[in-house]
Amino acid sequence: MDSDVSRETASDASGSAGHAGVSRETNPLRHVRTAAEIAAQDSEFTDPGTPLAQAAQHSVLARSGGLRRQGVERPAATRVLVVANQKGGVGKTTSTVNVAAGLAQLGQKVLVIDLDPQGNASTALGVDHHRGVPSTYDMLVEGRPLAEVMTECADLPGLWVVPATIDLAGAEIELVSVVAREQRLARAIAAHPLVGTAAEVGDDRFDYVLVDCPPSLGLLTLNALVAGREMFIPIQAEYYALEGLGMLLETVEMVRQHLNPRLTISTILLTMYDARTRLAAGVAEEVRGHFGDQVLKTAVPRSVRVSEAPSYGQTVMTYDPASAGALSYLEAAREIASKGAPRA
Q: CA 330, 222, 167, 141 torsion: positive or negative?
């Protein structure tokens, strides 16, 4: 017994030394919901057995369309969310496609606009985005209507995508000489016949439009910030993310003052959360202390399944619906829907 204890103590000591003082202990004051707990909250989970059985039942519901019967209320008007963060690698595109997929699984009608020239959101949603495909470039630069450049995702009924091609990389330069260049996306979205209120459009309307921005502040991101009513900010639970958040808030304030006074930060999602470290808990506590209810209660853990899914042209919601990442993103989507749009 004593030798086992000493071996564990030595292992802990070497681990802490290799992580520059970052403790691997769990902060007892901050509890992040696990995949099993999220699954247990589901009203359609009637199996009183193990968390594994509940997760398996969730997988069946997701694949069979059973989640659509859970009664998530549709918004009264189309909500336009801009998913942005000037810092790269925080899970921005991953959060965009998986939250969009989660909303679609819950019966919402969703449109994803890929504004990143890399086209990663288009890849994850399984739509073609090679050169020549109708894309966001044609919409922004050539002026084609939004309805002509979007395509429905094969794996998820109710989820539509406007793909990004490599042509979008030159759009920033081509838009410089265009009149009202920062308004191009806003006008395209407003002109779509399925964007608007229930009274204007009816039941066929889009419930959500999610715009995936590139990780930089240029004309593409500026177009998104002018077009959006809400900002959805994914934040990685690490120190550098807090520095990037400060710069993003300055950008948002400038856009609000000069171009879009209605822009509101409505949703913040903690991603790549490692509950074993005090650092993650500290970042989460600081973000929640500053933004309060704008921060979703559910944090997305690090997950191999989430990283694997795009290589198969899928979101984690269809690739492995019972995984911790899928359950977390589904709960995040449910929170966004239940919170509703911010007041004008």
A: positive
